[in-house]
TrEMBL record:
Cross-referenced Pfam families: YBL028C_N
Domain annotation DUF2423: ranges: 1-39
Stretches for region Disordered: 50-134
One GO CC term on file: preribosome, large subunit precursor
InterPro entries: DUF2423
Source species taxonomy: Eukaryota, Fungi, Dikarya, Basidiomycota, Agaricomycotina
UniProt feature, compositional bias: Basic and acidic residues: 63-86
Biased composition (Basic residues): 122-134
Top-level taxon of the source organism: Eukaryota
Record protein name field: DUF2423 domain-containing protein
């Protein structure tokens, strides 16, 4: 008999990878709706730009300090339209406490400072003599 998943992160990762589920379709529709809303708001807020500034050479466009050929820009756009990247589900899955510690630059698991009965540092498992022997 199959085992169910209880871990929320594993369940969320699996649902994120499913593209044909109801949730993925609903999420894509929501994303599209929000995107179109933001683009229309962005067009309303944009200040008027002079026509001289809007003219761009066919061969080259200026982005910041770099000069980039229009062909390179088209290639980058074509690469973005290609196959979507796979979502990686491998790697460490940390709990919230460990993620917080990592974001603050601390070690994921703090060093143990306790002592056991023999006077050595307390280990995580099997640290010393068991409490009861028979």
């Amino acid at each position: 008999m199959g085992k169910s998943l209880r871990n929320k992160k594993k369940v969320a990762a699996r649902t994120a990878k499913r593209t044909d589920s109801f949730y993925a379709v609903h999420h894509a529709a929501r994303l599209q709706r929000l995107s179109s809303k933001l683009t229309t708001e962005g067009e309303l807020v944009k200040p008027d730009v002079k026509e001289d500034e809007m003219k761009v050479d066919d061969e080259e466009t200026v982005e910041g300090d770099k000069q980039v050929k229009a062909e390179d820009v088209k290639r980058e756009d074509a690469d973005m339209e290609g196959e979507p990247k796979k979502i990686s589900t491998s790697g460490p899955r940390l709990n919230r406490r460990e993620e917080w510690r990592m974001s603050k630059g601390l070690s994921i698991r703090p060093e143990s400072k306790g002592m056991n009965r023999q006077g050595t540092t307390k280990a995580r498992r099997k640290s010393g003599r068991s409490a009861r022997r028979r």
